[in-house]
Amino acid sequence: MIWVAWRQQRLQFLVSALLIAAVGAVMVFYRFDAVSFMEDRGIAGCLRIGSDPCTSSAMAALSSEYKTYVSFLPMVLLCLPVLLGMFAGAPLFAREFEQGTHVFGLTQSVGRRRWWATKLLVGGGPVAVLMLFLGVIGVWALKPLNHVTRGPLLTPGFETQGLVLGAYTVLAFAIGVAAGMLFRNTLAAMAITLGLYLVVLLALGGGLRPHYFSPERTTGTVAQSTGESERGGKSWIPDDAWRVGSAYYDDEGRKVSFNPSGCDGTESIQSCLTKQGVRQQAAEYYPATRFWAFQTAESTAFLTVAAALLALSAWSLRRRVL
């Protein structure tokens, strides 16, 4: 049964493996290129704006050199999981039903459960492992460009490296499998995979991610929170942190509102804040050191949804007439 499943899925696997390998090779190349660029300019090891030599101008030169690459790469990595789900997961069972080949497979002393599990493991397991490996490579490859990506916690950098890349692939594959099992039509399953994957990605990633953990909070005067120029361009919170909230207070500690449109464009942000009665500012943020905690939490959430979808496909296989 394993050999038959491999023969059926080998073309999709080989194409997927070559695509993943090509993306990985590009990331490795740019990793070494960025390290060489930073060594030539004496900023090796600089991950954010700080003291000399990691000055604002030096880091701006790094951003200018690699901004095109950093803008293009996430688009590719964001598309990979859903493409693999559409072209590997959706046809896995739907095509069998369309062509009637499932009847032959299930009459060769192979039970439904074994048929289902074997095709899943052979068709999806290797691809998920490769994408997980690509995500881990991404953490290593993008680390020298931490300043250019604005840190590993911000979108789209977070979604395109680490454990979540493998978890997203498992989810997209599971959606394709469940849709193919329920609707028994390859095109319908592919369309559902694309739509449902985007819905889950936005709902979990965009809606729940800020609530996985409690953010850190810092408070300072207007001068402290806006004096980036006096600090050489360095923000009052780490510039690779994920800022999730701000609050403004007057002299007596009462919360006040700040309207950026009230600034006339010629005054500094500090003057504008002061003019509107703001004396202190608070910021809530997640430091970049929470990257792996967020990766683990989000991967667990996506794998849980994927497991539920695979359970649904198993239930459908057991209950429906084939």
UniProtKB/TrEMBL annotation:
Protein name per its UniProtKB record: ABC transporter permease subunit
The UniProt record lists the keyword DNA-binding: no
Keyword line: Membrane, Transmembrane, Transmembrane helix
TM segment ranges: 12-32, 72-94, 115-142, 162-183, 190-208, 299-317
Keyword field contains Membrane: yes
